[in-house]
Amino acid sequence: MSNNRLQSTGAPAPRKRLSWDERHRQLVDVAWRLIREKGADALTLAQVAAEAGVTKPLAYNHFESRSGLLLALYREFDARETQLIETALAQAEPTPQSLAAAIASGYVDCVLAQGREIPGLVAALGTNPELETVKRASNQAFMHLCKQALDRAAKSGSVSLVSLYAMLGAAEALSHAAAKKELSPEEAKAELQRLIEDLLARV
Prior knowledge:
By secondary structure, this protein is mainly α. It is built from 10 helices and no strands. The protein folds into 2 domains: 18-64, Arc Repressor Mutant, subunit A (Orthogonal Bundle); 71-202.
């Protein structure tokens, strides 16, 4: 009997065992999909494990708790957003129009890249003190990044903290409205850019 014959009638090849990082990536991808389909409030580690075809204890080994999973998702989104805005600002001219456009496009584009998952995830963050602390630290880092860039175009040489909070609030509201299709991406970006330009014109 030929080797080909033996191979064709033999037992199926064993399923490849995923590394820790590969399994982690799989679980995170499943979690993003479940949030997109069912919303963040419905997300559980048991559901993620079932959809990924693994045991519930394995999922808990990766995230420890539902809060740990939400935290991992938010940190991934935050890292992607920071990288996108840093790149946009590095390529922008030191003018109010160029810097405002870079921040507006970077922020809105990142939220839209995750679709409707982000508004639900951000809302879920507010229900847990640890997650709220992480979100607050993320907001502070975002404002610091923007301040470093916007100070270059400010007449006084410095953008105030209250202005940065106003910009952050507008960025979140407009990008989330665009994610929910209440505004078009173009409308959200254009309005956020105008608000940032107006902010710079006042300082």
